[in-house]
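Exercise (ungraded).
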Amino acid sequence: MTDISVETRPLKFWQGVNQALVEEMERDQNVVLVGEDVAGPGGPYGVTRGLLDKFGDLRVRDTPISEAVLVGLGVGGAGVGLRPVVEVMFFDFAMIAMDQIVNQAAKFRYFSGADMPLVIRTMCGAGGPNGAQHSQNFEAWYCGVPGLKVVMPSNALDAKGLLKSSIRDNDPVLFIETLGLLTQRRDVPVGDDLLIPLGVADIRREGSDVTVVAIGRLVDRALEAAERLQEEDGISVEVIDPRTLSPLDTETILESVRRTGRLVTAQEATAPCSVGSELVALAAESCLSELKAAPIRVASPFVNVPTPLPLAEERAPGVEDVMRAVRETIQGS
Amino acid sequence: MGNQQPLVQAAPGSSSSTPLDRYRMMRLSRRFEETMEEQFHEGQVPGPLHLSIGQEAVAVGGCCHLRQSDAILSTHRGHHHCLAKGAATDRLMAELLGRSAGYSLGRGGSMHIAIPEIGLLGTNGIVGAGLPIATGAAYAMQVQKNDNVTVCFFGEGATGTGAFGEALNIAALWRLPLIFVCENNQYVELTPQSVHIAGDIWRRGESFGIPGARVDGNDVEAMAEAMETAIARARAGDGPTMIEALTYRWSGHFVADRAAYRDEAEVEEARALDPLISARALIDDDVADAVDSKIEEEIAVALAFAQQSPLADFDSLSIGHYAGS
């Protein structure tokens, strides 16, 4: 997006999601949106506001609190020709719909050879005073499921472009939005043809000393850390946002790690068996001899998310945590 | 995969409407499963096999008034549903025998068959999982503003899942064109339904305003008639219906289960109520004999087709996980 001839406008993350839904619903009658409180109230954080008025209550539909049926509406709908977008209000609630996501949606093509054009939107992270059952990050759990795609945008531009691509994709996509990012702004090109391909990582900042692979809320923090490390220590940090977690753009990530010889991963989830763990394993398997230092995972501590917001914010890794890890990889080599 | 043309056409179960058609489909289903049971004992079925022998009238009566564009959801015990909705005998057999000509290239087996082009959205390895999917198919039919309907077959065991309550509520709330067919075969896996079920299943929809009926699930004509009413109601936009079809599982939970937990006398009593006997009684003997021998031919051709198809190989495992793969 460096082409200065393209007209851009600063958009909040939620507006990127909202615009993607509007544009795709205008483009294709088969796109529908169902979920708890998505229609009348426009979602608990207003992400889907205005859609009911534009598209009517058949295509934008509030459901009962029935998560299994909610995702099932998408599976069955996609099975007979719709391109449903279903919203699971908080990622924590997807636990109740796990069967429909993992055993049903993700298996449909394998069993039948037929398309399963379903998008499951959900909200992760500790961006509000919501506590241990409304704030979790389970993205890694789903990355081990063949047949499912997992997308996790970190900003308004990617949210819009990746959601539009996800809706047009013929496989089930788990689309993870991040509560802590909803009101963050980024310049987004004006127009309705913004499609960002799934499975392609974005090198957000080029650097030569350390590769930081950050996801979700940690991307902006990693970018800020990179800026400060350049100023304060003269360390050149490359920041990569995979954007799609499954399938993962291993080529872009490994090319960078080989070049810098150092890897730091950064995420809001806890460390055990996480996306960070996968990235470290990938580097160890693929280019151990080219590493100059042991990789480091920056992650939330292995404790539940507290309800009071200051505590929840303290729990999530920050700019300083990323900086510390980067310095450690330099010192450790 | 699913878009290949069947080499042997199944009987037009999805449009059959006469007693003769219904008998034919029931007989096909019976002989299909007996043949698969033999193959299992010969070690030719590389997976579990849940037989619906004795329950054919539920599937055939349940599907005989459906169009190809109507959808059904089946269960782990679903060969009869597949055939009645129009699955090709030969490819279904190939799938069960682990052959590459099967609907899932022989990798799925009997619990993992989905043929969307004939409206079969899946047998299922998860009890009750078809219920949420059925609401989605029925909702799509509303959005598409056609008068197609969805039929969700499930066993009485599935009424113990949370999805059952969720599905009833939303089907009534949204007046979905959905028919719930509880195929009550008296046993839930290895235990009798007295261990599982409180109250009357056919009345479970009452407080949601869903009309219910209990039907003799061994009488294909009674089943077809009840379905005709429910289907007409759904096509007219008047919402869902609950049908509890009483039948009996002749076999164990799966082929290797000898069902030692039940009385042989009880099984004999159920066998005397063989749904094929009453279905056959409605047509001339010589016509029925001709149907029977035609089916023997079809089964033999299908079996030969399946056996000649190569066994699923390891290279096929990566096929069909994502579009274009």
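Further reading is listed at the end of the chapter. For now, observe: Residues 15 and 64 of chain B are 6 Å apart (CA to CA). The first helix of chain B runs from residue 19 to 41.
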